[in-house]
Specification:
- α4 packs antiparallel against α5.
- With about 290 residues, the protein is α+β, with helices and mostly antiparallel strands.
- Strands 2-1-5-4-3 form a five-stranded antiparallel sheet. The chain has a three-stranded mixed sheet with strand order 7-9-10. A two-stranded antiparallel ribbon has the order 6-8.
């Protein structure tokens, strides 16, 4: 009894009719009922919701049939791991149940801290990888721009100057896209209020290719749209959904060879709306596929 009083736990026993015959433990200090209030009461009599969660009648009935069970329960901010076992007499006859509810709140909090630390560590690693990749991506157009500026300054041929100006324009646009991508990542990482509304996915997909028509013509890429006419609207942020689809479509067009095909399709799958972008491009190496959504 002394040991049980020092443990962060609650212990109780019942008879074959699930009448509480004993209850003790320091865990009662953390919940709004007294140990003595359970005595001679049916295990779930006049319970608050939390009491039902801790003293589950079905688990006690299982114990009367010789089966053990374990489950988690919460009482306000306090978390318990509960164990229900058959209670035997000296002749190994089941005469009731014995239950123990261990207070695992400290362990739960420690586990949450560990999860938070692990997530933060992963975020730092992703950020580190992103900075390395971004540095490489930024250095390439900057090197091209520096070379073009040097040749532009040291070349009087007007045609060659035009070509270098065109290269500078392309690389400037590429840098702008990279910077915009970084800003988008920062906005998404810090977003607090994600406004959603009912979005017509088919309409969104229908207008999506307009910005890519010049590239599609130049690369002679055939764009196929296979849209489910019965697809209902979805609850989403239209602006961010459009931006995500643009990224996927842009990637498909960029890595599809001249004369290839890009297919955009929509369909309903149970409660989900599926949007697929397929292409006949070079694909993604298996070792890189796990990093797609970083």
């Amino acid at each position: 009894h002394l040991i049980l009083e020092q443990m962060p736990a609650i212990l109780w026993t019942t008879d074959e009719n699930l009448i509480v015959t004993s209850s003790t433990g320091s865990g009662f200090n953390h919940i709004p009922i007294e140990a003595d209030s359970l005595l001679n009461q049916w295990i779930a009599s006049a319970p608050p919701v939390e009491k039902l969660s801790m003293f589950r009648t079905e688990s006690h009935y299982q114990a009367l049939e010789g089966n053990s069970s374990t489950y988690q329960s919460r009482w306000g901010d306090v978390s318990f791991q509960c164990f229900i076992e058959p209670l035997y007499d000296a002749k190994q006859k089941i005469i009731g149940c014995v239950g123990v509810a261990l207070d695992v709140t400290a362990r739960r909090d420690a586990e949450q801290v560990a999860v938070d630390l692990r997530v933060e560590k992963e975020r730092v690693q992703v950020l580190s990888d992103f900075i390395q990749n971004a540095s490489h991506d930024l250095s390439t157009p900057l090197s091209v721009m520096n070379a073009s500026l040097y040749l532009l300054e040291n070349n009087s041929d007007s045609e060659k100057q035009k070509r270098h100006v065109h290269i500078l324009s392309q690389q400037t646009e590429r840098l702008g896209d990279l910077v915009e991508s970084m800003l988008t990542m920062l906005r998404l990482d810090k977003i607090d209020d994600f406004h959603k509304s009912m979005v017509d996915v088919n309409h969104l997909v229908d207008v999506l290719p307009f910005n890519y028509e010049p590239t599609l013509r130049i690369k002679r890429i055939k764009l196929i749209k296979d849209l489910d006419p019965d697809l209902p609207p979805i609850d989403a942020n239209e602006s961010y959904l459009l931006q995500a689809l643009e990224e996927v479509l842009d990637n498909a067009i960029q890595f599809t060879n001249v004369g290839g095909t890009v297919t955009i399709s929509t369909r309903k799958d149970g409660e989900r709306a599926i949007i697929e972008v397929r292409d006949t491009g070079i694909g993604i190496a298996p070792e890189d596929q796990v990093r797609i959504f970083e």
